[in-house]
Amino acid sequence: MTALDELVRDGAEPVKIADGATWSEGPCWIPETSTVRWSDIHGDRILQHDLLTGATSVHRDGVEFTNGRTRRADGAIVQCSHGLRRIEVERDGVVEPLVERWSGGRFNSPNDVVVASDGAVWFTDPHYGITVAGEGHPGEMEYGGCHVFRVDPETGEAEPMITDIAEPNGLAFSPDESVLHVSDTSAVRRPVGVGERRVVSYDVVREQGEQGRIRCTGGRTLFEIPAGIPDGIRVDEAGRIWSSAADGVHVYTDAGEHLGRIPVPEVVGNLCFGGADGRELFIAATTGIYQLPVAVRDATWSRIGG
């Protein structure tokens, strides 16, 4: 038995439970309705699958090319909008902007998002929504980079935390939030050997004092994905990193040791943990969602249930 076998229940394999998308991204478990919600980016709609009834439906369409999303502690959904170049919040069917600009310019196209235990929203801002056909609207990079931002829960202002990654994409905290893992996917749509397909880890440091400034330091490559890119990543309760790839889901220790690969027959865009007990892995792969029973939960499960 391998280390990866111990993380998957009873030798299970991923089973496709939902279909009909064109490019699946941003899965999020909604415990109140026992549904998995995700983005069909190229279809410009949000889909959801009900685990109790087995039905897949359109949650909303004409959504301005949403991408990543996560559930806040109060149950609201925080999500990224490529088309509107913003972070927005959906609650009870109402969508409102959370943050849209920094330093006088619009964001590029927010891609993935996490919420820290202090309520701060962290998100990545590569340029895909303004440069890739079908993922947003053509546009210009208005602040001249691709950063990882933190939105202060008190002021609502965004501040760049990481500026040295070419194209930041997926992100996830270690269980104690002392480390932020960020994927650099600058190899996408480039010739072999050009760009990065790695996950970079940063120490999250709060300067002295209760109101001390938060910084990310000591960026180091934790691992490189052997196939495709590490588009979306999640961290489990033991600190292991579960990464998307072109050939499935790869799992690594927090020291960067490769534990193995879970094969998936489509390119994987992102993933999330969920289910009634938190021990189901939902994999967003090209045309739909795959489900895999696992033996672990998300690092944030005890706080926000997914």
The helix fraction, in percent, is: under 10%
**How does the overall form come out from the CA principal axes?**
globular
Beta-strand level of the residues, as a percent range?
A: over 45%
Q: What's the CATH first level?
A: Mainly Beta
State the major sheet: 4 strands, antiparallel
Q: Give the neighbour order of strands across the main sheet.
A: 1-26-25-24
CATH architecture: 6 Propeller
Low-confidence stretches: none
Q: What is the name of the CATH topology?
A: Neuraminidase
* Total number of strands: 26
How far apart are the first and last residues' alpha carbons, in Å? Answer: 28 Å
How many domains would you count in the coordinates? 1
Q: Going by CATH, what is the homologous superfamily?
A: TolB, C-terminal domain
* Rg for CA atoms: 18 Å
In sequence order, what are the helices and strands, one letter per element? EEEEEEEEEEEEEHEEEEEEEEEEEEEH
Number of helices: 2
Kindly describe this structure.
This protein has 306 residues and is mainly β. The chain has a single domain, classed as Neuraminidase, CATH 2.120.10. The protein has helices at residues 128-131, 301-304; strands at residues 15-18, 24-30, 35-40, 45-50, 56-61, 66-71, 77-81, 86-91, 94-99, 101-102, 105-106, 113-115, 121-124, 148-151, 158-162, 168-173, 179-184, 198-206, 214-224, 233-235, 241-245, 248-252, 258-263, 268-274, 280-285, 288-293. 47% of the residues are buried. The model has no long low-confidence stretch (mean pLDDT 95).
